[in-house]
Design goal:
One of its GO terms (biological process) is regulation of actin filament-based process. Belongs to the costars family. This is Costars domain-containing protein. It comes from Saponaria officinalis. By secondary structure, this protein is an alpha+beta fold. Helices cover 50% and strands 13% of the residues. A 4-stranded antiparallel beta sheet has the order 1-2-4-3. Helix 1 packs across helix 4. The protein is globular.
Length: 90
């Protein structure tokens, strides 16, 4: 699976596990993603996929490297898609 496919699957999982915000973004903690059985089966390297998505400005979170346990409460924010953002403005 290539990086783009992994990032796309990550966005689906964040929407499944996260809470939608007023601006159309979704928020989930790293611990929720890391401990989810479905995510564990999909992502061989969850942290690497998160970093790739952050580099592409699809999502944001504090810090560079997330570690299980230490960073379980770090909030990951999936930015709203351009279509969702424009409909939220309307």
């Amino acid at each position: 699976m290539n990086v783009e496919e992994e990032v796309e699957k990550l966005t689906v999982e964040i929407k499944r596990l996260g809470q939608i915000q007023d601006d159309g973004s979704y928020q989930v903690t790293f611990g929720v993603l890391f401990h989810d059985d479905r995510c564990a089966n999909i992502f061989e390297a969850l942290v690497g996929t998160l970093r790739a998505a952050k580099k592409r400005k699809i999502l944001t979170y504090d810090g560079e490297l997330l570690l299980q346990g230490v960073h379980d409460n770090v909030v990951i924010t999936l930015k709203p898609s351009p279509a969702a953002a424009s409909s939220a403005d309307a």
